[in-house]
Amino acid sequence: MSAHLHLLPPGPVDLGAIPTDVTPGFDGGKNKGKAALFALGEQLSDLQERLWAERTTGSKRRVLLVLQGMDTSGKGGVLRHTVGLVDPQGVKITSFKAPTAEERKHRFLWRIRNAVPEPGYVGVFDRSHYEDVLVARVHGLAEPATIESRYDQINEFEAELVSEGVVIIKCMLHVSAEEQRARLLARLDNEDKYWKFNPADIDERGHWADYQRAYEVALERTNTVIAPWYVVPADKKWYRNLVIGELLLDALRGMALRWPPADFDVEEQRRRLLDEVPPA
Q: Is it the case that residue 280 has pLDDT exceeding 90?
């Protein structure tokens, strides 16, 4: 399967014309999809370990996976089922909520910069700097001119990250209003899921069209050659997870990661171990 089928082309964006429940590039169903994702685990783990090892040589390279989407689109599911395939020691996950009082004292990218993964890590943003051109636009939390200036600031920020060795994978998890409603109802039908339900999510559904338009503008304005967007169909959870897994695998493969060479005499150290006197 080629996850790059979901690469967003340049130009105006019409989310209404992009299906949310399709599985292009994969001819199996849910069970085959889950198995295909699990099969990626060994390769993902190996490449992530190489990235982690590379940092010992002074490499600045890292990966940043940006996950955006409407409520219930499955950001948490991607973290559990896809990102969960690799060693958690080499993963840094940041979930961005509403800005704190301290964060509001600074420019909007301040808290984002503080969360950028260090060399060797696979970093994940569960929501991100894009909230400041999505929620802010829908709810009028900033002046239109301020929001307009943020698109360019985001592009400059991401270009800066790429120049510093960050490989950016930006994914918009594209879920339909009907599927979101079904998922919210499922939470209300299961008392074990009450903790995941937020009445405010229903309020936000009233702004669905506004959010879709905000996403369309943000996607169009920040879909760059060095940090392109992928619009991932998210109505089928297993397919969403598989696509993200493929994108992560492709990104790591594209880095041509190599195990660091020994900075010591291997044979000498071997002789030392073979010649040592066994401890009493």
A: no
Structure tokens at 45: 């783990």
**Which pLDDT score, from 0 to 100, does residue 121 have?**
97
CA 96 to mean position of chain CA atoms:
12
CB contact burial 245-277 (16+ within 10 A = b; e otherwise): bbbbbebbeebebeeeeeeeeeeeeeeeeeeee
Among residues 235, 210, 178, 250, which one has the least CA distance to residue 7? 250
HSE of 47, CA atoms in CB hemisphere, 13 A? 23
Name residue, tokens 């270009």. 159
Is 69 within 8 Å of 234 (Cβ atoms)?
A: yes
State the amino acid at position 74 in one-letter form. G
Q: Could you tell me the pLDDT band of residue 1, with boundaries at 50, 70 and 90? A: low
Q: Are 99 and 135 in contact (CB under 8 A)?
A: no
**Secondary structure of the chain: what % helix, strand, coil (to 5)?**
55, 10, 35
Question: What DSSP character marks residue 197?
Answer: -
Where residue 97 falls among pLDDT bands split at 50, 70, 90?
A: confident
Give every CB contact of residue 117 below 8 A, 6+ residues apart in sequence: 62, 63, 64, 92, 123, 166
Assess contact for 157 and 227: CB atoms under 8 A: no
pLDDT in tens, 207-235: 999 999 999 999 999 999 999 999 999 99
Has this prediction a pTM greater than 0.90?
yes
3-state secondary structure of 125: strand
